[in-house]
Amino acid sequence: MCIFMFSHFTYPPPTIAMGEQVEETKAKELQIAALEKQQILEFESYLAAASTKQTITEQTSLLLTQLITMDPTGPPRKPPQAVLEQLQSLNSTHRMGHLLCRSRHPDFLLDIIQRQGASQSMPWLADLVESSEGALSHLPVQCLCEFLLSSGTLLQPEKQHKHQQLLEHLQSVLTDVKQDPQAPCEVLEYFLRRLSSPQAASRAQAIKGLKLVLSSVAMEEEAMEIDNQQDPNGDNSWLLRQLPLLPHFRAVRPQVVQALRQACQVENDPALVSSYIYFLALHTTHDSLPELADLVLDMAQLIVERSSIIAAILPATDHDIPGALSTQNALMLMFCSYLQKAREPRREAYTWSESQDQILVTWSTGEESTMHILVVHAMIILLNYGPGQDLNLFESLLETWFPLGKETPKAYLVDTSEEALLIPDWLKLRMIRSNVDRLVDAALTDLEPPQLVLFIQSFGIPVKSMSKLLHTLDQAVTTDPLSVGEAVLDKSYMAQLVEVQHHRGATGGQMLVQVVQLEQPRLPDYSRLCSTTHRQTLPVTALSNKDGTKVTDQTEVKQVASVLLKLFGSGTLEPEWNKAEKQQAFRTLQKTLAVELQQSTGEKKTLNSTIVFFNEILNSTRSTSFVNSLLQTPQLACPLLRLMTTAAVKTSNQEDVVQSIISICQDIMRISAGNKSSVMTIVKHFLRKHTLKQEQKSQVVQLSSTEDPLQVLQQSPILKLERTGQLLLDEGLKLHNTEKLVEAMGRLLLQDTTGFPAQTDSISSVARPERTGLLIDWLASFEPELIGSCTSLQMQLLFSKSHNHQTAVSKSGSSSTQSCRPYLLTLLTHRASWATLHHCLQNLLNECDQKYDPTAVLDFLWALTCNPKLWQGREKFTPKHHSAEDILGLTSAQTLALVGYIVEEALLTVRESETHLQQIALDKMESRLPLLLQCTSGGQEMAAVARYLVDIMSAKTGTKSDIAHQLLLKLYLRIPGLIHHLVDVELDKFLAGACVNEWSSSVLDGMSHTLFTALTATSQSKDWTRRSQEYELLARKMASVHPILVLRQLPMLAATLRGRVHLDFAVFRSRNHLNLFQQVVGILELLQPHIFLQEYSEGLEDTLRSYFALFKYHGHMKDLLSLLNRFISLLQGFISYDAQRALKYLQKHAHVLSDLQIFHPNLPSLRTLLSGISLPKTDEEGGEIIVAVAAPPPAADPSPVWTPRLASLSKMQGDDVYTALQELDHLSSRKPSILDTFCEPISELLLSPTSNIRTLAHVLLARHLRHNPAAATVGTSLAAFLRCLESDQADVLNTALERLPEIVLCAQEHALPLLQKVFNLGMCSNVNTVPHISKTIALLNVQTGC
């Protein structure tokens, strides 16, 4: 349809794509066509497979030019060229495009314009308008307006006439009085709806179009009383002057009002928004109430939600804004007009609405109105800007919401009739910031203390308003000081804030400061009980002693004395207190003492006065009655004495206070005469604690000055050891000298736990384990990190071997470790700083030190990796594929020292005569592997570890070499790639004695089990041949690199071969069982000679038994000849490795071999095999069986017949090269081992420019690597393949990429650099390498079961 309407008979038409989109659309069409072509070919091939079985290509396809995907809702498709030409012919004869353009029901042209959208450019409109015949009336108004907007000033000179004609046509539509009013509405609607477009460019285009079409309207200055002062922006005369002069303005006015209301919500130009508001105020004030309600709601959203625009169009105090007063006056006019109509009495009731923002406002005059809450907020915000131009409007609006001398309006929810909050806190804060006094006073009315405290901390409040706020807060303090105090969280900040406001010039806040400031609580004035005269407070001095040499504050002493006398017995002439008065007075005294105790500095007046009173009364004649009163009122005396004794502890550095309280307690003890009460318990406990310290102090001074701490602790009896040690500890802490004491404790612990003497010159040093606990506790308290003051001694204590370690090993199989060492190591791990731990780690791992206990060292290293401090803030649940972090970060030398400790630990455990200890040693090495693997995350560290263990193995030091071999095997089970770090000689030595048949699991077990399970699960599906070849290649690669790990699956492989050979041979072959037996025998060939070891004899014999069963049932079939030859070669290898065990097994199946010789008499390998087992005799005297078995012929040099072929293969192209490759392909299909000789010339032919030679060379190389996967890493094949990937010839590169999956599978050791090379190739060139990489990764994932 678009092609017809615009006479554009090419694809894509301009309505679909223009400019750069054309190429994108064409590329998308090509992609869809390519996929569609592939689907058609597959469909046609499926049809041909059922009939002619012909191979369908693009040249032979019959349906390719006849079919297309049926997708009506999909993307548009390119018609064939013949169809386009046919459509062009039809258009010229029938004028279909002209008819479609003139159609109004449906309006196709308008539909296209609307689908394009306002943001799309439409250059095709110019051609359409230009090609229109005669008048423009047959085109829709929207089309003409779009052409006017899109053309602009870019028209060519010859097309200016058409543009002017179009403009005159649109102007006549607007200004013609006889015109149907619907036509001007359509023209203006098209421009006006763009004024609310989100794109600024679209809005600017609409304004430009409106200026063009309204430019012909003559402005009448007399009729429109508008001057530059009233017009917010003189450039918008099209809106304020010309638009109202249209003949049909009354018809278009609702449309214009609706468009301008929407434009106010999106327009960002302040001048335009001001003009829109001014226009709305001029032409909407006489509208009905529903229309005004919608209008003021839009204006309210503008005022409340678009604060940035409002700030740019309304008056500001700091700078002048052009037209701001006019805009403010226009908004007030709209809101006042709305209020005037909204408050009029109406008969109809308000219709219920689900909106929660509708409220019912009632005034004290009895008037009520239902309005939106935003409208109320907007009017109050508008009042904050001051009177403006019209004072009457401002006063009317202000009187409506904040009447003088009357109650303010109230609001109720429409749906629930509950009273609503008319002015929220944020609006009250804005009113406080206003310069209108009535607004400020109204905002401060009925504010709670938390609101007042919050507002005073806000910014931007004028000084005048701040003064009112502070005075209001002072009134709140006077009324409810507790609420204000709770509302002030940061009292110091609030005091500073009030001071800052005073500096600004604000007044008030004095009452608030008195409540905010923290002052020390004072005792109540009991002058009415003691004295009626006021006394001046004297300066407070120090506490007075019994002798009265120092003076205190007499007023404070007499106040406290008066209270205590009233509490504990009458001694004054004043009347006694009742119970409530006593409790209140004691509670005040108790609080005052508690506050003084919490203060670390400052003079404690109340405490000093209390002590003075106690000293005076206990030395007077009233002491006995006072003490008796204390004992009779324990509910008051006990709390008071506890506070006083607590003060003695907290002020221990003030000896006069402590001595005074001790003297008071001693006097109470003396006067009480053995009374047993809770008061006496407190007194006795205090005296016992402090008098004991005085006695111990003299003993400490004597001990520390005469003897060495080591001798004191060594010679102290066990019963006095704790007391003596505590004395030494206290004195050392006081003198800040604990090094000698720590060293003494370390030496004694070392003597008690390891047997080393504490003093080298002391012969009488005897271990005393009973004091170990005390020494450990003291050491932990004095030396929290356990290593610091005497590093060497402490390292010896924590990690050294026991004294008799070199001659004895405990029966449990481990060295005699000390019972306290785990606790000490735990303390070291959790308490020591990172620097201390790092220093300790370096000391331990500088070398494998023989003086250290390897178990203690390894336990410490493992504890470091599990330190809880490392995992704080980490995820509690680790991800599934999380790999352990290298916490220790050891160097290569430190890693080797760690390996040395592991070997040393196992060596200390092993005894040659006790086999169970060997198993314990193996278990210990197994438990240390996680630590070692965590510290050897990189390949270089693992290579160094492998070399280190191989060197120990090669040294042939007996048990230590065996342990190194076993550790290397365990590492090999965990990291099979370790084997690549060994050279051939070392690898043979490593695998020679390796037997991992009964050990713990290996990481390769899952892969090998998955792979063999998939390989033996034969299927009859079409793609099984391809899949089985992939499985076989993966299995062969694994068997060639890791034979001893693959042999762990030999019993499983033998079990999967059972239950197949009993089938009929045709069924046996069709179900791919024969192919499986051939693949398995190939894998067995790669496992030689390890498969012949005694450890694997059971699995080997089970596997061979399945093959003998196969030949027993189907041995007469000639299809089994190739399998029989390979099987006989395997048996000959078995005989060559272990003739006695092999012939003993073969004698059980001699009848099967004899039958096979009858079926195949011309098979020389079978005759040779039977010649050795034809007479199965056993030497009765125990002698060995002598069998004359011909050894397998050695590998010979290439036959001279291959010499010319080798010369031919040295060329890069030519017929003789291709002939030689074809002959080699034919021979190697039956015997792939032939390719070993021709590997190098075949590798060179991978770069041949001839396609058939290059392809055949890739086929032969893949066959060679499939037969011998280990050759991928030792020959020149991989280097040649890399040269193919670097080739500049596209054919050579594409051929190599097609063989990438097979090459990567055979050279998995180099898979990462190969895939990186291909990935970089795809990123840096136009070659699509994604399919090849995806297929390769998919094949690699097969090993893991993905």
How would you summarize this macromolecular structure in one to three sentences?
The chain is an all-alpha fold.
Secondary-structure-derived class: mainly alpha
Basic shape: flat
Could you tell me the mean pLDDT? 77
The tally of helices reads 66
Largest sheet, strands/sense/barrel: 4 strands, antiparallel
Termini separation comes to: 52 Å
Q: Which spans have pLDDT < 50 for at least 5 consecutive residues? A: 221-234, 518-555, 760-764, 804-817, 1175-1202
The radius of gyration over CA amounts to 52 Å
* Multimerization status: single chain
Beta-strand residue fraction:
under 5%
Order of the strands making up the biggest sheet = 2-1-3-4
Helix content: 55-70%
Q: What's the β-strand tally?
A: 4
Give a structural overview.
The chain has 1346 residues and is mainly alpha-helical. It contains 66 helices and 4 strands. It has a 4-stranded antiparallel sheet with strand order 2-1-3-4. Helix 7 packs across helix 8 (160-175). The chain is flat. The two termini are 52 Å apart. Residues 221-234, 518-555, 760-764, 804-817 and 1175-1202 have low confidence and may be disordered.
